[in-house]
Design goal:
The chain is α+β, with helices and mostly antiparallel strands. It has 21 helices and 16 strands. Helix 12 packs antiparallel against helix 15.
Length: 571
């Protein structure tokens, strides 16, 4: 393996950098100072060579990779991603799927500092051993680039993986695509756009780095290492996102380490980016940050599906801390939030079930999943069923009002009428939705593929806290505003009464792809402490998409000025 690494040198003037060798691991001052310089080291390198020494490829793996290389060379025009040339390529090649899964499970992609190398390096070359079935020892090495890995991950988007594999794929794609933006900075990004992109990278770095492993300083007492590892992750985020900030060295001292939990460290980073003026912090839909044994912050973790802001930002409220935020709230004038009708739920259930029978769905082999994975998959399917049922309740014409279909990835469908026509093809135009016309004609089969992909795309980008708890505890619903527009949102399914509000700073259409709908619960003084008074507790955040005009003040019942939204407490 070391000989293969040496062969990557292009001249005698190039050298190798290895953290473990080039940094004195026993000198704490040197280690801490080098943390602040790692981005410079890896950004300055011509290439980052990654030795995946814990995996081996066999003959079938290498044959699948060679076939894929031939496909790209012969079939994919320059400038075109393989996914758009043949989206189902990997779906029909199990050996290529097996090859990708080996890569995903490499320990390299579990380590936080390795995630940092992926984020800041210009180019990446991956090396793995080849195991020849006919020999006991092989010196052959399989070599592939970061671009190849990125396209393989894209092709796997139509392959149903286990929840752990799918989550790892999402994080790897996020950090690899974040790296691509760096190549366009000098020529194609204005100062404002660059500032926005760097802040988005800040959020992605938090999402990618914190699930990874960081062992902390081995010289510390065992009970402090996990806290030190969390501080290391803070340093990685600050350094890898080009924020210009670094963690104060005193934060690594034993007296400061106590209490540096994962949620506390994430909260510190999110308050930093809020101070920078990043509206994404107000629209994150991941798990709420649990600060104490009985308190959830008003801040939620960032998910890769939470989106981005393409244009200028509005000034953010100045009064906030870890326990509350004080801001203007706009409350739409609506009678109630409707959940999907029973008739539409029955039709949606039957349709999604038959998608699997007709090979449109490629869900995992249910019996092969763990009990937790089975519960996650069932909750996700139930959520998808209710979202499709809401679509059916609103009707096909609802989709024609959108320049881009709601909740669906940018560029997924070029014309919203494609989705509207698919619904007409499958279910008819009105209430007499025929159930036996779904299959039998090629155009209806294609329409079913379009609708099925649209549903799952919307779920990936819309569900608050896209985990087992999120799919189980939330459900889609819709409401009709005073302007006649109909809008989908997501609410807890616990039967309580909630208020939907939009922070005034997020009213502009610039933020329509973010989860700017705040789901609030009324909090009175006798249940939340006298300091709170009559105010709100944040239950979650929801993406809202529909035909209502939220820039029109007539859409809102009232503008509640400078209301405090507190953290949520529980017993």
């Amino acid at each position: 393996m070391f000989e293969a690494i040496l062969q990557e040198l292009e001249s005698d003037h190039e050298g190798l950098w290895c953290d473990q060798v080039c940094i004195n691991q026993l000198d704490q001052a040197e280690k801490k100072s080098m943390i602040g310089a790692k981005d410079i080291i890896y950004k300055s390198a011509r290439a980052v060579i990654v030795a995946l020494d814990d995996i081996e490829f066999d003959e079938r793996d290498t044959a699948a990779l060679r076939e894929y290389a031939d496909f790209v060379i012969k079939e994919v025009p320059d400038g075109t991603l393989p996914f758009y040339r043949d989206p189902s390529y990997m779906k029909t090649r199990p050996h290529l799927q097996s090859c990708l899964k080996k890569i995903i499970y490499s320990e390299y992609f579990e380590r936080a500092w390795c995630g940092h190398e992926l984020a800041v390096g210009k180019e990446h070359v991956f090396l793995a051993r080849f195991h020849d079935d006919g020999t006991e020892v092989s010196n052959k090495i399989v070599r592939f680039t970061g671009e190849v890995l990125c396209t393989l991950l894209e092709l796997s988007l139509l392959v149903e993986l286990s929840p752990d594999e799918a989550n790892e794929r999402k994080l790897m794609l996020a950090i690899l695509f974040m790296r691509l933006y760096q190549d366009y900075k000098p020529a194609e990004l204005t100062d404002d756009t660059l500032r926005i992109q760097l802040q988005h990278n800040f959020m992605i770095m938090m999402t990618v780095i914190f699930p990874m492993k960081a062992g902390g300083d081995p010289l510390l007492p065992y009970e402090l290492r996990a806290y030190d590892g969390n501080n290391d992750k803070v340093s990685i985020v600050l350094n890898g996102s080009e924020s210009g900030l670094m963690l104060n060295r005193t934060m690594h001292t034993p007296d400061k380490l106590l209490g540096a939990t994962r949620s506390v460290c994430l909260q510190r980073l999110m308050l930093v980016t809020l101070a920078e003026g990043n509206p994404l912090v107000l629209c994150t839909t991941g798990a709420p940050l649990q600060l104490t044994s009985n308190t959830y912050s008003w801040l939620n973790e960032f998910q890769t599906g939470d989106g981005n802001v393409n244009e200028g930002w509005s000034p953010l409220p100045p009064n906030w801390n870890c326990r509350y935020i004080e801001l203007d709230l706009l409350i739409p004038h609506i009678d109630s939030i409707h959940t999907a009708s029973r008739v539409s739920i029955d039709i949606a259930t039957k349709f999604l079930s038959e998608c699997k029978d007709h090979s449109i769905s490629s869900g995992p082999l249910f019996e092969s999943l763990t009990a937790t994975e089975q519960e996650f998959w069932l909750a996700r399917v139930t959520f998808a069923t209710r979202l499709l049922a809401c679509y059916l309740d609103l009707g096909h014409a609802w989709f024609e009002c959108f320049p881009q279909p709601p909740g669906i990835a940018q560029g997924f469908l070029q014309d919203p009428r494609i989705l509207s026509n698919a619904i007409v093809q499958l279910f008819g135009e009105y209430e007499d939705r025929p159930r036996e016309r779904w299959w039998g004609k090629s155009k209806r089969h294609k329409a079913a593929q379009v609708l099925y992909r649209a549903i799952w795309s919307a779920i990936e980008r819309s569900c608050p806290n896209a985990t087992l708890e999120g799919f189980r505890d939330w459900e889609p619903g819709w409401f009709e505003a005073v302007d006649g527009g109909r809008t989908i949102c997501f609410v807890p399914n616990d039967g309580k009464e909630y208020t939907l509000a939009i922070p005034d700073v997020l009213r502009n259409e610039t933020y329509e792809r973010l989860a700017r709908g705040w789901i609030l619960e009324k909090q009175s003084s006798d249940s939340g402490g006298c300091e709170r008074g009559q105010t709100w507790v944040l239950r979650g955040k929801s993406r809202i998409f529909g035909t209502s005009n939220f820039e029109n003040t007539g859409t809102f019942a009232r503008n509640t000025r400078w209301k405090r939204v507190w953290e949520r407490q529980f017993e």
